[in-house]
Amino acid sequence: MSDNLATLKTRMAKMIRIGQAAGLVGWDQETYMPPGAANARAEQSAALSEVTHELFVSDETGNLLAKAEADAVGMDDDLDDVRMLKKLRRDFDLQTKLPTELVTEMARHGSLTQELWKKSRANNDYVGFRPALEKMFDLTRQKAECYGYDKVNGHIYDALINEYETGAKQKEIAVMFANMKPGLVELLRKITESKNQVDEAPIHGDFSVAKQRELTLKAVKAIGFDLSRGRQDEAAHPFCANFSRDDVRLTTRYDEKFLQQALYASLHEAGHGMYEQGSPERFEASVLAGGVSLGVHESQSRMWENLVGRSRPFVEWFFPTIKETFPDKFATETPERFYRAVNTVKPSFIRVEADEVTYNLHVLLRFELECALLEGSLSFNDLPETWNAKMQEYLGITPATDAEGCLQDVHWSFGLIGYFPTYSLGNLISTQLFASVRRTLPDLDEQFRRGEFAPLLNWLRENVHGYGSKYLPEEVILKATGEKLTSRYYVDYMTQKYGDIYGV
Ligand code: ZN
Predict the structure, then answer these.
(1) What is the pLDDT of residue 176?
(2) 3-class secondary structure for 188-227?
C-alpha cells in the first residue's frame, strides 16, 4: 500500500468515525432525547455534519485521492483498494459540488423540521408545517442544481436519487412503475372483490407492550440478528441505524391492540440490521463498509419481513411462541388463520403498515408528488388535496386527516427527498434474490419450519452482505442472481401467493 493511500485511509476513517458519532446523536434524538433539547441537538448535528463535510471535501483529501489514484494505475480492478478509490472518487466528486453552507443549513433545518413534524403530525397541522417543508424542498432543489443533471433528456430527480441508488434515472423508474401498476391495480381489484376474504381477528386484541417487546426480541434473535452487537428500542417511526458493524440499533413501535405492527416492523428493521452486521470487518471505517444502496438494503428488510416472516413455514414455526406469549388470545387460533391474517390485503392510509400488494402504490404516489413539487407543477398549498386525490385513485380510499395523509412520513422533514422509489426497487430485488436462494437451498421451507434461518443468512452473507459497498448495486444483483434486475420474480411471487390466499 502506498503512503498516500495509507494517509488517505486514516483521514477517511476519522471522518467516518465522526459521522458515526453524528449518527448516534441522531439516533438518540429519535429515542431518548428530552423534547427540550431540540435546539441544542440541532446545533450539535449541524456542527458534526460541518466537521465531517469539511474533512471530506478539503483540498488535502482531494490531493491525497489524486496521488493514491496515480499510485494505483495498472492495479487489478477487483482489489479492495482499487474499488475503494473508485467509490471515494464518486463520493468526493458528488460532495465537492455542495457548498459547506448548504450542507450545514440542510442539517440544521432538517433537525428543526423533524421536531416540527412530530408536533404537526400530532396536531394534524399541515399549515403550520408547510413553510418549513417548502424551505426543505428549496434547499433540496439547490442541492440538485449543485450536483447537476442532464437538462435536456434528464430530470432534476436524477440528481437526487443518484445519492441513494447510484446511476438510477427518473425515466427508468417511471417505466418500472408503469410496468407494475396495471397488474397491481388489477390484482387489488380481484382481491377486493374475492368471496374468499381474510379474517383479521387473530392479530387484533390486547397485547401488552412488555410481552410484545419480549416476542419481537425472540423473533429478531431467532432469524440471526446479533444482540451482542445491536439492540432494539422504541421510536415514532421504525428505523435501523448503525455506528459500525458492531453497533446496530433497531427501533420498533408498539400498538397494544394490533400485534402485527411491532412484530413485522422488527423483522423488517432486523433485515436492515443483519445486512450491516454482515459487512466485512476489513471494510470497517472505510467507504466500503455497510450496505451498498437503499434499494439493496430494502431488499434485505423486505425479504426477512415478507418472504420469510409472512411465509407459511415461518408462521408454522413461530406460532407456538406467539401462543405461549399470549395464551388466552391464541388458545383456539391456528397457524393458518394467523398466516392469512398477517397477509391481509386492504388499502390503508399508512405506507409503513401497507400490505405487499398496495405497498408499491404508496411509493408511486410519493414518487409522482415529489417529481411534481420539485418541478414546481404542484404547489405546497395543494399538496394535501392532491395527495388525497391520488390515494382515492390508486387505493380507493381518502384520508380523513393530513396526519394520515401527507404528514405521515418523517422523511421529507429532514431532506430525504428523491429516495422513495428505492423501496419498490427493494421489493423487486428481494424476490429476485429469493428465487436465486431457492435454487441453491431447495429445502428452504423445511428449514423455516424447523426455525433454521442460518442457511439463508449465510447465503446472504456470502452473496450480498460480504461485498459491503465494494461493487455497484447492479453488480451485486448480477453476481448474486446471474441476471439483471427484472420485475418478473416480483410479479410471479405476488400472483402466486395472493392468488392462493384469496382464491383469485
Ligand atoms: Zn426499510
Answers:
(1) 86
(2) HHHHHHCCCCCCCHHHECCCCHHHHHHHHHHHHHHHCCCH
